[in-house]
Amino acid sequence: MSVMECEKLQVGQKAPDFQAQALLPDGSFKEVKLSEFKGKWVVLFFYPLDFTFVCPTEIQGFNKHFDEFKKMNVEILGASTDSVYSHKAWTDKELGKVKFPILGDTNHSVSKSFGVLLQDKGIALRGTFIIDNNGILRSTVVNDLPVGRSIEETLRTIQALQSGKLTGCGWKPGEKTLN
User: Fold this and answer.
1) pTM of the model
2) Is residue 171 included in any domain, yes or no?
3) Is 6 considered catalytic here?
């Protein structure tokens, strides 16, 4: 991906729409579009590969906090460059039930449009993108391959964004805001 392409993706701008096949929680497959989630917040997170070491901890983390996200009108979408068939084999063999769709970005179009594709490896960095109910990108965090993300920080960031207030460093719900 060129620098010009990455510069197009910016917090405060419309998130790029996409369409990709996904493994659904019931084990079936379906084409999913970001535009289908208008009116809801979305956390789109990328992970490098199925059948690895750090990735299952992140998927299990989102599963564990799934109900908290739902209470905030947030949909979770996982994504990697593996196929939906690999996702299904991985969830059936190792992960168990996953409560949210996992996109199979085998053509790399989604990971490219969000600027997380490592083209030389054909895999995605650990990107977390918070998209509001109007399709606007509100937060982006990208970690290098060996470093797992914090689901708790993702939740806190959404709570801060949804508060509509100025929130200081480390702010948590129930604490005083700056305005």
Assistant:
1) 0.93
2) no
3) no
Q: Tell me the residue range of the domain where 93 lies.
A: 3-148
How many domains is the chain partitioned into structurally?
1
In the set 55, 59, 103, 151, the catalytic residue is: 55
Residues 90 and 166: their CA atoms lie apart, in Å, by 41
pLDDT at res. 179? 87
> Which two tokens mark 107?
């053509």
Gap between the Cα atoms of 6 and 75, Å rounded: 24
Task: Give the pLDDT confidence score for residue 8 in this predicted structure.
Answer: 76
- Confirm whether 42 is domain-assigned: yes
pLDDT beyond 60 at 5: no
Spatial distance between the Cα atoms of 74 and 41, rounded to a whole number of angstroms: 4
Asked if the structure places residue 140 within a domain, the reply is yes
CA angle, 8 then 120 then 45, to 5°: 55
In a domain, 154, yes or no: no
**Per DSSP, what are the bridge partners of residue 4?**
none
CATH number at residue 42: 3.40.30.10
* Nearest-angstrom CA–CA distance, 105 and 162: 29
Structure tokens at 93: 């063999």
38-47 per-position pLDDT tens digit? 999 999 999 9
